[in-house]
Design brief:
By secondary structure, the chain is an alpha/beta fold. Helix content is 42%, strand content 15%. It has a 5-stranded parallel sheet with strand order 5-4-1-6-7, sandwiched between helices. Strands 10-9-8-11-12 form a 5-stranded parallel sheet, with helices on both faces. A two-stranded antiparallel ribbon has the order 2-3.
Length: 344
């Protein structure tokens, strides 16, 4: 079921066709803070949950972990419309939730309260969102439910799991979208990661040296970086490279000297690059991310996601590749359990 927000209706803002837009699908629980409502659902069941939502439908939800990211997408759209008034190459945010339509009014009221430009709602009433994600040509799906994220990844849709925002969240830019990516099993395949997990660091370095001219296969978020790059080029074409409202970062545990060449050559072969590349040679990522201040950081290992969150960065887990077959930290398991119930 699709609902139209009052703000978009009143402003007459036209949304691009899904095949032309860069579609970002977000669940209600990552866009907004619905922890209290989730607790009611888990403790008292669906009927009490729906009753509470209806009774409180005039009370807007507070921001969730994806909220600053979505605001930054809208800031980019504003700049794009100024430069290309007729273009449909814009970010289009879809609220993708398995809530029932009864919750729709509270979500619309919240959208209008926070002055967000979100017109497309898909409320699946408990059904899988995968079919809708495909219909919208989704470029990125963010959810609090790791099972739905895995399902999306298996269908070839870029996706990541988000968690409650850090208690001391780092302030982020309101005018420049900053997105940071891990390399292996995020932008690239997990081929090299498999060598490291199976044979250790020395064999990994040997493998990368021997294959430095062999391109890595693509990972689950390569297409999203590609989409960001296309929009960046639209700003470059107008002489705004130094004032571009999109900035991308590669933040990898690889060493520049021993294994960085292959990563950079692969990006170049794809016609892609990142504005900054940080090769940390195994050092913690959190301190560097604290300096970058991204709106979102994607990594396939919960260890790095948690390390980033501890220092205030909103990080999203990409459950892809060989790292998912190894035991994760207890906190990661608890987070996954907490985020897997119905009101996504």
């Amino acid at each position: 079921k699709e609902l139209r927000s009052e703000r978009d209706s009143l402003t007459g803002t036209q949304r691009p066709k899904p095949q032309n837009a860069i579609t970002i699908a977000v669940s209600s629980r990552v866009l907004f803070n619905m922890d209290k409502e989730q607790q009611i659902y888990e403790q008292k069941g669906m009927e009490e949950y729906l009753k509470y939502q209806i009774e409180h439908e005039t009370e807007p939800f507070g921001p969730g972990p994806a909220f600053p990211f979505v605001k930054a997408l809208e800031a980019v759209n504003t700049r794009l419309r100024e430069l290309y008034p007729e273009s449909e190459e814009l970010f289009d945010v879809v609220l993708m939730t398995n809530n029932h339509a009864h919750v729709g009014l509270r979500l619309i009221n919240t959208i209008n309260h926070h002055r967000l430009f979100i017109e497309r709602f898909c409320m699946t009433g408990g059904n899988s969102p995968i079919g809708y994600l495909k219909a919208y040509h989704t470029n990125l799906y963010l959810s609090a439910d790791p099972m739905k994220v895995r399902e999306a990844l298996e269908e070839g849709i870029a996706a990541a799991t988000m968690f409650n925002p850090p208690e001391k969240r780092t302030e982020v830019s309101e005018t420049q979208l900053r997105v940071a990516f891990d390399g292996d099993a995020v932008l690239f395949s997990d081929e090299s990661e498999r060598i490291y997990k199976a044979h250790g660091l020395d064999k990994f370095f040997e493998h990368e040296k021997a294959h430095e001219n062999t391109l890595l296969d693509h990972g689950p978020l390569k297409g999203f970086l590609e989409s960001l790059g296309k929009l960046q080029k639209k700003f470059y074409a107008k002489g705004q490279r130094m004032d571009c409202p999109i900035r991308t970062y590669l933040v990898t545990a690889r060493s520049a000297a021993s294994s960085g060449t292959r990563a950079l050559k692969t990006l170049r072969s794809w016609g892609l690059d990142t504005d900054e590349a940080l090769f940390l040679a195994g050092a913690p990522k959190g301190p560097m991310l604290e300096k970058i201040r991204p709106h979102i950081f994607f990594d396939d290992q919960m260890f790095h996601v948690e390390g980033a969150a501890e220092l205030g960065t909103v990080a999203a887990h990409v459950p892809y590749g060989v790292a998912q077959k190894r035991p994760q930290k207890k906190l990661a398991v608890e987070n996954a359990k907490d985020s897997s119930a119905a009101a996504k």
